[in-house]
Write a structure and sequence with these properties.
Layout (H helix, E strand, L loop, with lengths): L3 E2 L5 H10 L5 H12 L13 H10 E2 L4 E7 L5 E6 L5 E9 L2 E5 L3 E2 L17 E2 L2 H17 L6 E6 L9 H12 L11 E5 L3 H8 L6 E5 L5 H7 L2 H4 L2 H15 L3 E7 L7 H11 L6 E7 L14 H13 L3 E4 L13 H10 L1
Bound molecules: iron/sulfur cluster (SF4).
The site of iron/sulfur cluster (SF4) has 12 residues, from loops.
Length: 353
């Protein structure tokens, strides 16, 4: 019998699983409480749960599957975790501190096949999807790390924007969202969770049809197909003619603001004409569009790119504003650690080579 991570089960799945095996329904509430509120690390710590139920759980599930390999902490409080999975693969998770709370950026795949040309993770092709349990455990591990500091800090926000394309691992990511959003457990509000996609149009339709009101961000990075294909090869499969209708479907279903991620690359996509073109692309839903301008965080592997000048970023922002598109600049966190997506993992893998 293959054991799996108990964190991968939604509350309903756990309840059904226990009831099918002759346990009372209320056991699921007890187990859930021990896992997510008291945050135990072994089933025999669940004091009010009967022995037979503990044995049953122990026979079928793990609680911990990740091993912490490295933790880096930046002077601004950003923390980066490198985890080893049970099969030896490495993944990264980042905790960021904002004035509105603590936000964790999770990884959803080992490597990534999307191939964004500016990204360190994109160089390491996908070897597998993470299970829902492995994604939930990243949050649990960070929360337990905070618990040990006894500052009563709580992970309040999640961004599914780390290594991997979340919508390419759809079912596991959905289960993850249901688990962390469950009010008997971590109770992280759907409006505090953002899923970011590189633009898998067919999956955006599926995502719009789900019943959980989490935020969606789309990595747009360029205002036209030529440039977008140059920066992100996924644009060949899902060019703007396919992507934009899927976003409009999402907006019709949800009527919620959508964030567009735009990485600012010097002399590549940061000219005034690009800002104008982008504002035209988003014009028909400008009241629901927000553009996140991201100063490029250079990685050793991509020396063809440089960060746009601050004045250029400001001008881009002004042009969007004049044309009725809201935008802001997301300054980096953790500048003194390997905070760029995939950096810590790729450095560690090079050392092991
Ligand atoms: S930016 Fe994200 S989607 Fe693009 S290659 Fe990197 S990990 Fe994959």
């Amino acid at each position: 019998m293959m054991k799996t991570s108990i964190y991968g089960l939604t509350f309903k799945e756990l309840t059904d699983w226990l009831v099918e095996r002759g346990e009372q329904k209320f056991r699921a509430e007890q187990v859930w409480d021990w896992l997510y509120k008291k945050r135990i690390t072994s089933f025999d710590q669940m004091k009010n749960v009967n022995k037979s139920c503990i044995t049953l759980l122990d026979e079928h599930f793990f609680i911990k599957t990740l091993t912490e390999e490295i933790v880096q902490e930046s002077s601004d409080g950003t923390m980066k975790f490198l985890f080893k999975l049970a099969d030896g693969n490495l993944i990264e998770t980042v905790l960021m501190r904002f004035n509105y709370g603590l936000s964790v950026c999770v990884t959803t795949q080992v490597g990534c096949n999307i191939g964004c040309s500016f990204c360190a993770s994109g160089l390491l092709t996908k070897s597998r999807d993470l299970t829902a349990g492995e994604i939930v455990e990243q949050i649990m591990h960070v929360q337990m790390h905070l618990d040990k500091r006894a500052k009563e800090e709580r992970v309040s926000h999640i961004v599914v924007i780390g290594i991997g394309e979340p919508l390419d691992n759809f079912d596991n990511v959905m289960n993850f969202l249901y688990v962390v959003n469950e009010d008997r457990g971590l109770n992280i509000g759907a409006r505090h969770i953002t899923v970011s996609t590189s633009g898998l149009a067919h999956k955006i339709y599926d995502f719009a049809d789900t019943d959980i009101q989490v935020n969606l961000a789309v990595s747009i990075h360029a205002p036209n197909n030529d440039l977008r294909t140059r920066i992100m090869k996924i644009n060949r499969a899902f060019p703007l003619e396919k992507l934009m209708p899927s976003i409009k479907y999402y907006l019709q279903k949800r009527n919620r603001r959508i964030t567009y991620e735009y990485i600012m690359l010097h002399d590549v996509n940061d000219k005034e004409e690009h800002a104008r073109e982008l504002s035209t692309l988003l014009a028909d839903h400008r009241h629901l569009a927000y553009v996140n301008l991201i100063p490029y965080n250079s990685v050793d592997e991509h020396d063809q790119y440089r960060r746009s000048e601050t004045a250029t970023i400001q001008k881009f922002h002004e042009t969007l504003k004049k044309r009725g598109i809201a935008s802001g600049v997301r300054w980096e966190q953790g500048a003194d650690i390997d905070a760029a997506c995939g950096q810590l993992r790729s450095k560690q893998m090079k050392k092991a080579e």
